[in-house]
Design brief:
The structure holds 2 protein chains of 2 kinds. Chain A is mainly alpha-helical. Chain A contains 11 helices and 7 strands. The chains are: A mainly alpha, B mainly beta.
C-alpha cells in the first residue's frame, strides 16, 4: 500500500514539474508576427494592405444585417460593436455554463444566431462566419489576451494542455516538441514559431484566404500524420483555449497576416 | 456576398509635383481554371483580367492580370500629383466582373 502511494506521489511530481520545465518563460514569448519578414509585417500593419480587413468589412455588413425568423441583426442587441465587442475576442474560448463546456468565438456566434436570431448556424470556415469572427476580433486588436482561468475553464485548459503535450500520429510528435522546445529552429526553411494564437482569424498567404485557428491546428495535425478532429470538435476547442491561456497577456492582432 | 470589397489607399493631400504611393486591394478568388473540384472536373476560370487607374480621367496605371496572380490581388504603384481631383480604380474580369472605387485628392 505504501509503495503504491510512493509511486503515485512520484508520478504526481513528474506530472507537475515536466510541463512547467518545457513551457516557454513569459518573457520569451513571441507572436508569429515577430517571426515574419518585414514585408509581411508591413502588410499586417497597413489596413489597406491587410487582406484580412476585407473580411472585417464583410463582417461589419453582416453585423447590421437582419437574419433568421426573429429578423434581428447583431447590432439590434449589441449595438455598436466597437464598444460592445471590445475585448470579447480576447476572452474566448470561454466556459459556457449553459452547455457545461468551453466554447470558442465561432460557436458563441452560432449560439447567438440560434437563440436570438433563430437563424441557421453558419458553417465552420464559411465566409460569413469568418467575416463575423474577424469583425468581432478586430474590436479587440491591441488588447491583451485574457481568457478566464477559473473553476469553469481549468479542466478544459488542462485537457488542452494534455493534447498539446501528447505525442501522436505516425511521426509520434507532440505540439510541444516543436512549439515549446524548438521554436527557435526552422522546419524546411520556415521558422517553427511558438504557436501563439495572437492574430486569428488570420489571412494566411499560403491559403490566399482567411482561416480560423482550428483550420491552422488541423494543418499541423495533418503534418504529424495523426487523426485530425473535425472542425468544431471539443478537443480542438480545448486546445484553442489552452493556447490562448498560454498566450495570456500577449497582444491580440486580429486580423493577422501570416505567411 | 456578391459585391467585391476593395480597399484603396491614396494620400488625401499632396504637394504639386510630388510622387505619391497608391495601394489597392480587392477581394476576388482569382480561380485559375486549372484546379479540379472534388469530382475531378475543372473549376471554370474566374479571374480579374484588367486593372486600370485613372487620375481625373487620364490613365496613369494599367495592369493585366493572369491566372498566376494571387487571390485578393494587391497592387501598389506611384504617380505624380498634378492637380486636385479624383483617382478612380477599375477592375474588370471574367463573368462580367466589374468593380470601381474612387477617392478624392487635394493638391496644393
Amino acid at each position: 500500500m505504501i509503495s503504491r502511494w510512493r509511486i503515485a506521489a512520484a508520478l504526481a511530481v513528474i506530472g507537475a514539474t515536466f510541463p512547467a520545465i518545457a513551457e516557454i518563460p513569459m518573457s520569451e514569448r513571441k507572436s508569429g508576427y515577430d517571426f515574419m519578414g518585414k514585408q509581411t509585417q508591413a502588410m499586417q500593419d497597413d489596413d489597406t494592405a491587410n487582406a484580412g480587413m476585407l473580411w472585417v468589412l464583410d463582417g461589419e455588413a453582416l453585423w447590421k444585417r437582419h437574419a433568421g425568423a426573429a429578423n434581428k441583426s447583431c447590432a439590434d442587441c449589441h449595438g455598436d460593436a466597437s464598444a460592445s465587442m471590445k475585448g470579447v475576442a480576447a476572452r474566448y474560448p470561454a466556459f459556457s455554463p449553459a452547455l457545461g463546456r468551453a466554447v470558442n468565438l465561432e460557436q458563441r456566434i452560432n449560439s447567438c444566431r440560434a437563440e436570438r436570431q433563430q437563424a441557421k448556424p453558419l458553417a465552420y470556415e464559411s465566409k460569413d462566419l469568418l467575416a463575423l469572427t474577424a469583425f468581432i476580433g478586430r474590436q479587440s486588436r491591441g488588447l491583451p489576451i485574457t481568457v478566464a482561468d477559473d473553476a469553469g475553464t481549468r479542466k478544459a485548459i488542462e485537457s488542452g494542455r494534455a493534447t498539446f503535450t501528447r505525442r501522436q500520429g505516425q511521426l509520434n510528435l507532440s505540439c510541444a516538441q516543436c512549439h515549446d522546445d524548438n521554436w527557435s529552429g526552422r522546419l524546411a526553411g520556415a521558422p517553427v514559431t511558438q504557436g501563439q494564437p495572437t492574430g486569428y482569424p488570420i489571412y494566411r498567404l499560403e491559403w490566399q484566404n482567411l482561416g480560423s485557428l482550428q483550420r491552422r491546428l488541423r494543418n499541423c495535425l495533418t503534418g504529424i500524420r495523426t487523426i485530425v478532429p473535425a472542425l468544431g470538435a471539443q478537443e480542438l476547442v480545448e486546445l484553442e483555449l489552452y493556447l490562448m491561456w498560454r498566450a495570456r497577456g500577449m497582444t491580440l492582432e486580429t486580423p493577422g497576416v501570416r505567411p | 456576398m456578391a459585391a467585391a470589397r476593395a480597399l484603396i489607399n491614396v494620400p488625401p493631400k499632396a504637394r504639386r509635383g510630388e510622387v505619391i504611393g497608391i495601394k489597392s486591394l480587392i477581394s476576388h478568388e482569382m480561380e485559375t481554371g486549372f484546379r479540379p473540384n472534388a469530382t475531378g472536373q475543372l473549376i471554370p476560370r474566374n479571374i480579374i483580367k484588367e486593372f486600370v487607374c485613372t487620375y481625373n480621367g487620364v490613365e496613369v496605371f494599367r495592369a493585366e492580370f493572369f491566372p498566376a496572380v494571387s487571390a485578393n490581388p494587391f497592387v501598389s504603384f506611384t504617380t505624380r500629383a498634378t492637380e486636385s481631383g479624383t483617382i478612380t480604380m477599375t477592375w474588370t474580369g471574367d463573368n462580367g466582373f466589374h468593380a470601381s472605387e474612387s477617392v478624392a485628392i487635394t493638391v496644393e
